[in-house]
Amino acid sequence: MRRSAKAWSSLVFACAMAVGTLAANPAEASPYQHGPDPTESSIEATTGPYQVSRTTVSSLSVSGFGGGTIYYPTTTSEGTFAAVAIAPGYTADQSSISWIGPRLASQGFVVFTIDTLTRYDQPASRGDQLLAALDYLTGRSSVRTRIDASRLGVAGHSMGGGGTLEAAKDRPSLQAAVPLAPWDLNKDFSSVTVPTFIIGGQSDTVAPVSTHSERFYSSLPSTSDKAYMELRGASHFFPNTPNTTMAKYMISWFKRFLDDDTRYDQFLCPAPDDAAISQYLDTCPY
């Protein structure tokens, strides 16, 4: 069949438009994607695009952990959100990590900073308590209808970071884990398949990275999604005060693996060259 010059021109234009559309949109957006397109400024900001409310959970009303504070986006127009439980370190309570709750929640997560049963609980116990907190969050809490129970993550500092690894080992259905300056006598997490992002401090003398964070990272399967970031000059206590570098990559990891939001790949893969990072290892691409 012969086509006129005008018909051929129209066909070529249509094909070019189709190719351009595919190039601009190589994959469909995740159905769990929340918020505007991210930028360096947006993930470094102390407050994200969502207004946040909080509710206190008394230790008397729960079992398996010591209560805590839930931070959550106030909007009800965007469906459900992924949820994260975060545990403090040895002898500490949730106040030591309280800044992380609203910062993460304002980026589109439900966040539960918890207290432990005692200040002296070891990592395995803290891992169990993180899982108990997630079960409460999705099953009994006042915000349970705001949460997608299939998209859950854990994080924690020091022994809470060790607990994060223990929780990831015990519950493979978790979607993401972020141990912060983790401490644990157990050094073998070769069975963990949960995407895990370990953040250590270069000058940590409590849980030196050479005997803790780096060994934990190395023990994780090479076939799994994992990353290790070391903060230049940081002590063991870097998670206890607002830390922009920690927050921006923590947000990116949770966005990527809890929300399946590939818009955040750009901050994780290839390895970032942030001046505050002394070492970065990963299994990119995801």
TrEMBL record:
UniProt entry tagged with the keyword Signal: yes
Keywords, alphabetical: Hydrolase, Signal
Signal peptide: 1-29
Cell division in keyword set: no
Gene3D superfamilies assigned to the protein according to its UniProt record, in alphabetical order: alpha/beta hydrolase
Domain spans labelled PET hydrolase/cutinase-like: 28-285
PANTHER family per the UniProt record, alphabetical: DIENELACTONE HYDROLASE DOMAIN-CONTAINING PROTEIN-RELATED, POLYKETIDE TRANSFERASE AF380
Family, similarity comment: Belongs to the AB hydrolase superfamily.
This protein's name: Lipase
Organism: Amycolatopsis dongchuanensis
